[in-house]
Design goal:
about 25% helix, 6-stranded antiparallel β-sheet, about 700 residues
Length: about 700
C-alpha cells in the first residue's frame, strides 16, 4: 500500500472477524527498538477514557477486542504484533489507531525497514505498508482500522510526530502532565528509564476537576497507568512555600525483558543430578515398540499440533489447495468401503464461510513405503464422500512429474480428488521456520512446535526424512569404480532419482536453519520433461562417474554447487563469486582473504579468468600471507571471479548412518555454508552522507 491509501478488509479475505497487525523495523546497530501503542477513538476522534489506551503495561482489553502479543524476533530485527477481535470492538468505537514510539533522544530515522503488515486470523498476510520517510520523529502512526458502515477498512497513515508520543496523545484527547516529578535520584538502567519515560509521558489526568486525586497502590495491573500524587518541582526563583501537588503517572510495575518467541540461543542449565536423567516431553517416544505404534503416534502428534497452531497448519495445507479457516483433525476414523471398512490414519477438516474442505491422511514412518492399493482405496472413498484430497506423509521425498504411488482416477466422476505428498522433512522445515525465524506470536504455540520438532528429530520416532539411497547405490558405485557400468542401466536412473530426493531434503534442512528459501537449480532445455532429463543425467553418470547439483540460496553471492565423485570418493562444495566492478585485482584478492579470515584453512581458492580454463589457485592457509598469488602471471588476463571449494570424503554406506553417504552430503553443505558462504554476504548498504550546501 501507499501512504494515504485504504482498503476494505472483506475485499482481502473472508476471515477478518479478527486480524493481526504487525509493526516491524530493523536496527542497523542491533540495539534500537520501539514500543507499540493502540488507541480506541470515538466518532469525534478522541479517546473515551484512559482505558482506551493500550501499551506494554496494559496489553489486553477486558472485552478481548485488543491484545498485544509482544515482540517476535525476525531475520533482521523485531516485529511487534497486535491481535484485534473486530467482532468484540464496542459499537461506539469508530477508529483504532496503531502507533509506535521511541524513548529518550532516539528517533525513527535511525531504524530501517519500517513497515506494517495485516494478516487474517489464520496468519495469511493480506497487506503491507512500508514507511520510507520516518526522518527525525519519535512517534509514528503506522495505520488505522476504521468503520465504514457495516464493514472495517484499513488506512495506511505513516504520520510522524516531532513531539513524540506526548504530541500524538494530545491530538486524541489525552491530557499530558508536563511537570511530573522525578521519582528516583539514582541512575536508572535502560529498561527502567524506558518504562519511566513512557509512563510519565503518557500521564492521563483530569486536573481541572480532581486536583488532589490519589489512586491506591492496589490498582489492578491491567490499568494502563497508576495515578499518584507527587510534589511538583519548585523553581529556583520562587519563594519557599508548600509545594502544590500535581497528579503524575508511574508505571504500575517495572518493565520486564522484551518478550521473544524463539528458541534460546544458549543452553539452559539443567537441574538433573546426572546426564542420564531425561527431561519430560509432551510427546514421549520411549514406549514406541513397532512401526504401527510409530505411525499412530506420529499422525496424532502432527495433526494435533496443526489444529492448535493455525499458522503451522495453514503452512502445510495451503500448498494442497486448502482454504484458510477453522481446522479440526481426527485420527483412526472408520469409513465404509465395500464389505470391510477402512481406517485412514487421519482426517483434516477445514471450515470457511460455512463450507468444508476435507482430506484423508495416510502416514508411514521409518523406511516403510506407501502401498498403492491402500492409497487407491482412500482415493475411491474420498471421491464417493466428496472429500477434496488424500495426503500421504512419509520419509520419502516426491519428485516433480514422478508420483510415489500410481493410482487410477475414474475420469467419469464429476468430483475430482487430488493426491498430495508431504515429507517428514518438509514438516520439520516448516516448524523450524516458525520457531526460529518467523514466530507464531504466542509462547504456548511456540512450545508446541518445539515439542513437535523434538519428537520428529528423536531417533525412535521414525520421522527422519529421506535416509536410504536404495538398493542400486552400491552396485552403481562398484560399476563406476571398475568401469563396468554401461549407459542405459536402469540402476543408474534409480541413483539419479535418489540423488534428486537427497538434494531436495538438503535444501529443506538448510533452509530451515537459515530461515531462507533454498531451492535446487535444474538446468535443462525448455520443454524437456523430467523423465527425459533424468535419463540424460543417468547417462552422464555412467560416463563421468559424478553426481552434481546446484542450490540457490536467497541473499547468497552465488549458486552453491555440490558434487560427488564416485571414482575418488570425494565430495566437493563450491561457490563462484564475481569479481568486483571497480578497484584493482590485488585489492580484490586481499579483500577476499580478509573476509575469509575465519574460514577453514583447507579452503581452496581459484581465480577464474575470461576465455581461459583456469587460473592461479591454492589453499587459504597458503594464500593468507601472500594474497598476490591469486593474480595471473599474464597481466593482460582479465579476472572474472573466484571459485571457493571445500573437499570432504563421502560415506561408503547407502543409508544415513555416521558413515553414510546421505549424512556426509548433508554435513558437507552445512559446513560449507556456515564456515565460508556466510562470510561472503554483502554488508548492509550504508546511509548516504548528507550533501554539503553549495558554496556561493
Amino acid at each position: 500500500m501507499t501512504k494515504g491509501s485504504n482498503v476494505a478488509l472483506t475485499a482481502l479475505s473472508e476471515d477478518v472477524g479478527s486480524v493481526i497487525v504487525s509493526l516491524g523495523w530493523v536496527s542497523p546497530t542491533g540495539e534500537g527498538d520501539a514500543d507499540v501503542s493502540v488507541l480506541l477513538l470515538d466518532t469525534n476522534g478522541k479517546v473515551r477514557s484512559d482505558a482506551d489506551f493500550y501499551f506494554y503495561n496494559n496489553p489486553v482489553a477486558a472485552d478481548g477486542s485488543v491484545q498485544l502479543l509482544g515482540k517476535t524476533p525476525t531475520e533482521d530485527g523485531n516485529e511487534d504484533r497486535i491481535c484485534f477481535d473486530l467482532t468484540a470492538v464496542p459499537p461506539e468505537v469508530d477508529r483504532i489507531v496503531v502507533a509506535a514510539s521511541r524513548y529518550g533522544e532516539a528517533r525513527f530515522g535511525e531504524l530501517d525497514a519500517l513497515q506494517v503488515r495485516l494478516a487474517d486470523a489464520a496468519g495469511d498476510s493480506l497487506l503491507r505498508f512500508a514507511i520510507d520517510d520516518a526522518a527525525e520523529v519519535s512517534a509514528i502512526i503506522f495505520g488505522e482500522v476504521y468503520r465504514r458502515g457495516e464493514e472495517w477498512k484499513f488506512r495506511a497513515v505513516g504520520q510522524g510526530y516531532d513531539t513524540g508520543l506526548a504530541g500524538l496523545a494530545t491530538d486524541f484527547g489525552v491530557d499530558i502532565d508536563d511537570d511530573a516529578a522525578e521519582s528516583e535520584t539514582e541512575p536508572e538502567s535502560p529498561g527502567e528509564e524506558e518504562a519511566r519515560s513512557t509512563a510519565e509521558t503518557l500521564a492521563v489526568v483530569n486536573s481541572s476537576s480532581q486536583p488532589d486525586l490519589t489512586v491506591p497502590s492496589t490498582t489492578p495491573a491491567t490499568a494502563p497507568a497508576t495515578l499518584e500524587a507527587v510534589p511538583a518541582p519548585r523553581r529556583p526563583d520562587t519563594a519557599e512555600t508548600e509545594p502544590t501537588r500535581q497528579p503524575a503517572v508511574r508505571a504500575s510495575r517495572p518493565r520486564t525483558a522484551k518478550k521473544k518467541v524463539a528458541l534460546p540461543k544458549v543452553t539452559r542449565t539443567s537441574l538433573a543430578e546426572n546426564d542420564s536423567w531425561r527431561p519430560a516431553r509432551l510427546f514421549p517416544v520411549s514406549a514406541l515398540k513397532n512401526d504401527r505404534e510409530r505411525e499412530t503416534r506420529a499422525t496424532s502428534v502432527l495433526l494435533s499440533v496443526m489444529a492448535q497452531v493455525p499458522r503451522f497448519g495453514r503452512r502445510l495445507t495451503a500448498a494442497f489447495g486448502a482454504p484458510s479457516g477453522r481446522m479440526e483433525t481426527f485420527t483412526e476414523v472408520s469409513l465404509p468401503h465395500g464389505d470391510t471398512p477402512r481406517r485412514p490414519d487421519g482426517v483434516i477438516r477445514i471450515e470457511r464461510a460455512g463450507k468444508l474442505w476435507t482430506a484423508l491422511v495416510e502416514t508411514k514412518t521409518n523406511g516403510n513405503p506407501l502401498k498403492a492399493d491402500q492409497v487407491q482405496a482412500y482415493m475411491d472413498i474420498a471421491a464417493r464422500r466428496g472429500y477434496e484430497a488424500v495426503i500421504t506423509v512419509s520419509n520419502d521425498v516426491a519428485l516433480e512429474g514422478s508420483p510415489l504411488v500410481d493410482v487410477k482416477i475414474d475420469r467419469r466422476r464429476k468430483h475430482k480428488v487430488a493426491l498430495w505428498h508431504l515429507s517428514w522433512a518438509e514438516v520439520a522445515y516448516q516448524a523450524q521456520l516458525l520457531i526460529r525465524h518467523e514466530g507464531v506470536g504466542n509462547a504456548a504455540r511456540t512450545w508446541l512446535l518445539e515439542e513437535l520438532l523434538e519428537y520428529l528429530q528423536h531417533e525412535n520416532s521414525g520421522c527422519h526424512g529421506f535416509q536410504n539411497m536404495g538398493s542400486a547405490w552400491v552396485p552403481v558405485r562398484n560399476g563406476i569404480s571398475d568401469e563396468t557400468l554401461c549407459q542405459g542401466d536402469p540402476r543408474s536412473l534409480e541413483v539419479i532419482e535418489s540423488w534428486e530426493r537427497l538434494i531436495r531434503q538438503v535444501c529443506l534442512r538448510l533452509g530451515g536453519e537459515l530461515g531462507q528459501k533454498v531451492l535446487p537449480v535444474q538446468r535443462a532445455r525448455r520443454g524437456t520433461d523430467h523423465g527425459t532429463r533424468r535419463v540424460q543425467l543417468a547417462d552422464q553418470l555412467c560416463l563421468e562417474g559424478r553426481l552434481q547439483a546446484e542450490l540457490r540460496v536467497e541473499q547468497a553471492p552465488g549458486v552453491l554447487t555440490i558434487g560427488a565423485d564416485l571414482r575418488t570418493g570425494k565430495l566437493r562444495t563450491s561457490v563462484e563469486i564475481p569479481a568486483p566492478e571497480q578497484g584493482y585485482p590485488l585489492s580484490w584478492a586481499k579483500r577476499l582473504v580478509r573476509r575469509l579470515a575465519e574460514a577453514p584453512a583447507d579452503l581452496h581458492v581459484e581465480t577464474l579468468l575470461e576465455g581461459e580454463p583456469g587460473g592461479p589457485r591454492g589453499t587459504l592457509e597458503r594464500l593468507r600471507p601472500e594474497p598476490a598469488d591469486l593474480l595471473p602471471k599474464n597481466s593482460a588476463a582479465r579476472i572474472s571471479g573466484f571459485r571457493l571449494s571445500l573437499f570432504k570424503g563421502m560415506g561408503s554406506s547407502r543409508g544415513n548412518t555416521e558413515s553414510g553417504f546421505i549424512r556426509s552430503v548433508d554435513e558437507a553443505v552445512h559446513r560449507f555454508y556456515t564456515t565460508v558462504v556466510v562470510h561472503l554476504d554483502q554488508p548492509a548498504p550504508r546511509r548516504a552522507a548528507p550533501r554539503e550546501p553549495a558554496r556561493t
